[in-house]
Description:
- By secondary structure, the protein is mainly alpha-helical.
- It contains 7 helices and 3 strands, in the order αααααβααββ.
- The protein folds into 2 domains: 10-82; 97-164, Orthogonal Bundle (Arc Repressor Mutant, subunit A).
- Helices cover 52% and strands 7% of the residues.
- Helix 1 packs antiparallel against helix 2, helix 2 crosses helix 3 and helix 2 (36-50) crosses helix 4 (62-69).
- The longest helix is centred in the middle third of the chain and has 16 residues, at 97-112.
Amino acid sequence: MGNSEKRSASSDVAYPGIFTFLNRRAGALAKLGVGKELREKCLIEMCMRECAGNVEFVQKHAKRIRDIAFDPMPTFQTPAEFKTEPKKGKAKSRQSSVFNRQPDEVLDSCIKSFPNELPTHEGYRRLRQAARRSGIPESAVSHSAVWRALKQAGFRVVGRQWQRL
């Protein structure tokens, strides 16, 4: 369909809704990762094809269309075809109960091999290495998990040292 051909009035976006239309399209394009310059070109093309006034509207409102395309925080409207239905049924845990116990066991066994005094940075380094070797995420070596394991193994924190009681 060329620029000289007329579109039916039923397929055009009416004038009062054009900027809402452009904002939503800009948000959808931004969400897909389309860059600002390309987003502007797409909006101009969509406006010339879909909006009432076509080319004249684009020429009259070129700065506003550019502002919409270059808006750093466009309003995101997720198109209906991208929306996902929530899964029905009972929610499943992402981690098995075996995994939930494993980090504590790894921390306990590693702390048992510690000397009676150890700098905290060295202790955390050894615990992260033990976690990597076991295949558990390093996030399992959280401060609360380490503190619990140290307390259970009979350590206390003195300054920047871990000392066995």
